[in-house]
Amino acid sequence: MKAKLRDDRQEAVGPNDIWAMDFVHDQLAFNKLRILTIVDTHSRFCPAADPRFTYRGEDVVRTLERVCAQVGYPRTIRVGNGSEFFSRDLDLWAYAKEVTLDFSRPGKPTDRAIVAPPDRARWGGASSRRSTASFGRNA
């Protein structure tokens, strides 16, 4: 069977229409820091960049509740395929708030390219061989 291009994605027409949500990561000295990043795809406003060392589905819901209380609920949230986004907690929250969760296709991070970070080493950022704790030292 031939693959079909995904053409059902709509462009955001205003604020809170479509959000993109994903995690960015950084390796500290001994822990991996995960930052839940939420971006409004219309205005490019980032209502949340919530850092934690561990994240579960219920933590994502708590962050969304805090953000939505301030800026309102989106119509759609484009998310990756992480276990935090496939959680029952997030699914129930989205159903109760009438928010559509639009999952990216596996292996296609460009489906949510507003949030997905570029390769840091390629863009002159921190090397994946060095932790942020070693900056400023001869590593």
Give the gist of this structure.
The protein is an alpha/beta fold.
Task: Describe the overall structure.
This protein is an alpha/beta fold and 139 residues long. The chain contains two helices and five strands. It has helices spanning 57-71, 88-97, and strands at residues 18-27, 32-40, 48-52, 76-79, 100-103. The chain has a five-stranded mixed sheet with strand order 3-2-1-4-5, covered by helices on one side. Strand 4 (76-79), helix 2 (88-97) and strand 5 (100-103) form a beta-alpha-beta unit. Helix 1 (57-71) packs parallel to helix 2 (88-97). The chain is globular, with a radius of gyration of 17 Å.
**Number of H/I helices:** 2
Task: Choose one word for the global shape.
Answer: globular
CATH structural fold name? Nucleotidyltransferase, domain 5
What is the CATH homology-level superfamily?
Ribonuclease H-like superfamily/Ribonuclease H
Strand content: 15-25%
Computed over alpha carbons, the radius of gyration is: 17 Å
Strand order of the largest sheet: 3-2-1-4-5
Regions with pLDDT < 50 over 5+ consecutive residues? 1-5, 117-139
Q: CATH class, please?
A: Alpha Beta
Please tell me the total number of domains.
1
Mean pLDDT over all positions: 77
Task: Return the CATH architecture.
Answer: 2-Layer Sandwich
Q: Report the sheet with the most strands, covering strand number, pairing sense and barrel closure.
A: 5 strands, mixed
Helical residues, percent: 10-25%
- How are helices and strands ordered from N to C? EEEHEHE
Number of strands: 5
Euclidean distance between termini CA atoms = 51 Å
